[in-house]
Write a structure and sequence with these properties.
- With 126 residues, the chain is mainly α.
- Helix content is 69%, strand content 0%.
- It contains 4 helices and no strands.
- Helix 2 runs parallel beside helix 4 (88-118) and helix 3 (51-75) packs antiparallel against helix 4.
- It is elongated, with a radius of gyration of 21 Å.
């Protein structure tokens, strides 16, 4: 009787693994870009006379959304990937690195968000 051929180990494609690892830094970069773009455009145009309240409110909302997404990436990294590896050590390593990068990114997001409350929204640069 012929034995069935062993199933090949399915590893995630390299691009998917890199995207999985960089979920946190990508969210951080998006948050940073969104916050500073909104603040710069709002101050340059002078569209809102109440920019001192609109900008911090927008930054707080953007920070809250980014922080919630990063917390999902920290506590449930397996939900971000659909690939399963038969070699558990690879999956464990990828999750640990993804969590570490997401924690560092959460620190950056909270740091950026806190600056909105510590600095003048449209203060002059000297």
């Amino acid at each position: 009787m012929k034995e069935p051929a062993p199933q090949p180990v399915t590893e995630p494609p390299v691009a998917s693994a890199i995207l999985f690892l960089l979920t946190g830094p990508i969210l951080w970069a998006g948050h940073l870009t969104l916050v500073y773009a909104f603040q710069s455009v709002t101050c340059a145009i002078g569209a809102f006379p109440s920019a001192a309240t609109v900008i911090p409110a927008f930054v707080a909302l953007a920070t809250l959304v980014a922080a919630m997404l990063l917390l999902v990436a920290i506590w449930a990294p397996g939900r971000l990937t659909r690939y399963r590896s038969e070699r558990g050590e690879n999956q464990t390593f990828l999750r640990a690195v993804s969590r570490l990068l997401s924690v560092l990114s959460l620190t950056g997001v909270l740091w950026t968000g806190s600056a909105a409350f510590a600095l003048d929204a449209c203060g002059r640069l000297r």
